[in-house]
Amino acid sequence: MLLAVAESRVKLSPPEETAEEVEARGQLRPAEEAVARLHRLNAGGAYADRDGEETFIKLRRAAVEDVENARKAPRGGRASGGS
Description:
By secondary structure, the protein is mostly helical.
């Protein structure tokens, strides 16, 4: 009986996150927000000229890479919910 209770508790308990998982989760949201901010600035005309376009492309590539790296970080064996 005690074994059954313990097993059910283990199934119901969320897995503990490692420090790497917590850090990765903490990095993903700001990285996604940086991409969204770049798109808002671009839509508002912040990168309108040729140099601005090159700057936007460079910054967007770096921001998207940050998002991808945050998504690739350890997740304790859980499947990532990529888009």
